[in-house]
Specification:
With 318 residues, this protein is α/β, with parallel strands linked by helices.
Amino acid sequence: MEVRALGRSGVDVSRVILGCGNFGGVGSSPLYFGAGETEGEAHALLDAAWAAGITTFDTADAYGGGRSESYIGSWLRTKGADVRDRLVLTTKTFNPMQEGADRGLAPARVRRQLESSLTRLGVEAVDLYLAHEPDPGTPLDETIGVFAELQHEGKLRAFGGSNVERGWLEEALRHGRPEWVQNSYSLLERSDESGVLEVCAREGLGYTPFSPLAGGWLTGKYRRGEPPPEGSRMTIRPEPYEHLRDDRTFDALEAFEAQAADRGTSPAALALAWVLSHPHVTAVVIGPRHAEHLRPALDALELRLSPVERGTITERFA
């Protein structure tokens, strides 16, 4: 699989990144800690991703209340030095590790959380570290300062921000050198095009979007007038995507599905190819639940969209 430099960080990432947010939970929500993939299921998915050439894994301290990092750590203990030497690990901090626990990006907490992440992962350092979201209660210069100190100490190779807006990124750049952004970006979520992506292009930063399939909306699984499939995101955590449940979205999705059929591919593969075709997207983060869900991402790597083709697809969702 192709790898690309993540901005100027000195770290190369696979163009498809395995998101591990469903290991032992559903993201960072304490309500779902203990749900999601079991340790054995996580290991099987990690094996399948590695076999497919995916060498970058993305997690967070609060995913599954620490279970996601622990499952990756136990998987790593079954592998040889060659895997660890080639593997690129990203983790993040901000959210509480359990109901009622502290959160945020205060320097002391960042240090504590990174140490706990290193213990669960079973490594001495992580390649990439992210502020999982902005912390209005901590001055940004303090957060960037502790990230830079941890980088200097060899605990991380590069740092960045997730779920951030242009203003956060511009200020962070005044205090240090975040190397990349990880935000939601898809055909159905394009707000970064008018801000964050412009800064990434100007400053030579990496960009590794998550939710490229908009919670499954771009896979064809949600149909006009039909209830969402049992166990889908719209039955578990529908809130971020409720605004999509309207005729305008379904009109665009039906036209998009026809475009995918004309190309002999799946809507999911075409949606991922669209994201990957953006000139400033370094890699895309996917969160498959089963090994077979890796296929659309691998197919997307074979789809080469010209700027004209990309524009035609974009127009459907304008």
